[in-house]
Each structure stands twice: as structure tokens, then as C-alpha cells.
Description:
Blueprint: E1 3-10, H1 12-16, H2 20-29, E2 34-41, H3 45-58, H4 62-75, E3 88-96, H5 98-107, H6 119-123, E4 125-128, E5 134-138, E6 141-142, H7 147-164, E7 180-187, H8 198-206, E8 212-219, H9 223-240, H10 242-253, H11 263-290, H12 300-305, E9 311-319, H13 321-329, H14 342-346, E10 355-357, H15 361-371, H16 382-394
Antiparallel strand pairs: 1-3, 1-6, 2-3, 4-5, 7-9, 7-10, 8-9
Helix pairs in contact: 2-8, 3-4, 3-7, 7-16, 9-11, 10-11
Amino acid sequence: xxxxxxxxxxxxxxxxxxxxxxxxxxxxxxxxxxxxxxxxxxxxxxxxxxxxxxxxxxxxxxxxxxxxxxxxxxxxxxxxxxxxxxxxxxxxxxxxxxxxxxxxxxxxxxxxxxxxxxxxxxxxxxxxxxxxxxxxxxxxxxxxxxxxxxxxxxxxxxxxxxxxxxxxxxxxxxxxxxxxxxxxxxxxxxxxxxxxxxxxxxxxxxxxxxxxxxxxxxxxxxxxxxxxxxxxxxxxxxxxxxxxxxxxxxxxxxxxxxxxxxxxxxxxxxxxxxxxxxxxxxxxxxxxxxxxxxxxxxxxxxxxxxxxxxxxxxxxxxxxxxxxxxxxxxxxxxxxxxxxxxxxxxxxxxxxxxxxxxxxxxxxxxxxxxxxxxxxxxxxxxxxxxxxxxxxxxx
Length: 395
């Protein structure tokens, strides 16, 4: 079986209707493919024209082919019928026989009899009039119909990745009298350890904020990035976790000796250990987020290169975005998170708690810079690099 790269394009209508999380959940849960790339796009007329013509020519049914052409021209163009910014999210998947598996088993084809076993069966619509012409068409997600089209489409995404894709926050028209912010959300590595709809379900929770997705990228955080990203926690942990150290000492030592140990002594011992404990907890977080054990890898050059995990970063923009996202995320400790929040439903413990979200505008800016999701990093594109490497290897 072939090891391939393929794509799924989530349509503007699906995004504006907050169906993104449900679709991503299906894409991740129903396949054995690896999510390797993500990018938001608002396509130029040049791209839309080329993509529409290719989908029309790739269709074996002339009427459906014309339906594809009309849909792309009407919905992915800036002058679309809904007068919305036509944001698309393109996801890259890699694996054995990826193109066929994603199209046939996950996204699916349209059928005359409505079914809900695929992405299109659940989120898409195809209605014909009495003359057999396409009356209403919403595919929800788009992928390549065959291997040749797959390579052509990937080539198009690579060609327009820099000019038409990336961070879209400046393209939104939002009220100037409101507190407009951009928040970073990082869906943590445990969401991607096995085929699961958890990442999509968490995105669905955030959709209730009414905020706009303006960027998406698959992140492999290096050890050096992890140190910089979470470095501020090391000092915070010293006092914040002191009582936890004290409780652990009491639990371990209360029955170890034949005499009582005063609270003052436990407090003194906790003071002696709190710095070591803070360093250990900091290293555990970096290990979890990057897959790199800092005690084993001390060389700075290696720390700048090594990364063994994957996360999905999403930028949300809108009024009071920081607070809205934090409210929907829930408390760091899942046992304290309010019902209906992401951490209440999908977190496992204090560290494996589903997602990270910026807690202030300043931290959002800092975190975006570390991960290369700021405007100064716009001259690089991991998404394009993945496609270019696949196309070069396929020659």
C-alpha cells in the first residue's frame, strides 16, 4: 500500500456554522492517518478559478462537475453569496493509501438517500431539482477524487500557501469599539496519541464563544521552545506547590517514625524541597509537551532540534477573546472545572488537561512568538514544506 499525503478542506460555510470541530473529530477518529499539517486560507480569485476548473474536469458526472465548479466560484471567492470572509481550513493527512482512505471511508461521497456515516453524509447536502440539475450543494469538506487530482491540488495549495494562507486576523472586519483580542489555544499531545475525536470535541466547545478562527497549525514543540514557553512556571511552582510538597511529606512520614512530627518541621522540610520539586514539575511539563527528557538531553543544540510530540495550535479572534476562551476551557484542575467546559469533559489530570489557552494578551503575544505564529514569522511555512517534500519524493 502507498504511503501518501492528502488533504481535507473544510469549507467556509462549515466554519461559519461552527461545524469545524465536528468535522475534525470525524477526520481524526475515523481514519488511521496522521494529521501532519494545518493552515487557514482566504483564497485569491486566481486560486479559486484554477481549483474550480480542476474539480469540474476531475468529475465523471458532468452535472456534478458543474456543481463543483459553481460551488467553488460562489463560496470560496471573496465576493461569495453570504458576504462573509471565506475562511477555509486545509488539513494535511499522511499514511498508507491516504487519499483513498480519506475520500472513501471518512469524507465520503454524496448519495441519493441521506445517510450520516461519513463527513458529507452528516454535514453536507446535495439536492437535485426535478430535471436532475444540482439545486443545492454544500460538501462540508473537500478532498481529491483521485491520485492525479490529489497531486495537482496539493501543488496548488503549496503555490498559494504564502500569498493566500496563514494568519488571517487582520482580514476580519470587527467592531472597533469593542475589546478585540487574539487568543492562542494549543490542543495538547494526548489528543493525538491515538485515533480519537477529542481534539474536534474540544474545538466544538470553543465554538460556543462565537469567536473567529484566524489561524491553525500543527506544532511539534522543540525542547528549547518548551523551556521558553513554560519557563515562567518554574518560579511560580516554588511557592504554588509548596503545600503539595508538605502534604506528600506528611503522607509519607506520618507513620514512618514512632513519634509525632510537628507542622513546623513539615513546613521547614517543604522549604528545603520546594525548589527541587518546582524544577521536577517544570521538567515533567516540558517532557510531556515535547517528548524530550531534559535531564537526558543537556546539549543546547539538540534541545533546539528535538521534538517527539504533536499539538494543534489555533488562534481565535474577537471581543474579549482571552477571557471567553479561558471560561470555556475551565480550571486547570479538571476536578474543579465547571460542567460543560473542555477540561471538565476531556481532561485526565492537571497536566494532561486537554488544551492550553493564553491567560493574557501579553502572554498570547509571547507564546505566539515562541511557536512562530506571529506576523514576524510569516515568511516561513511548515505546511508548504510538507507538501513540497511529498511532491519531490513522488517524482
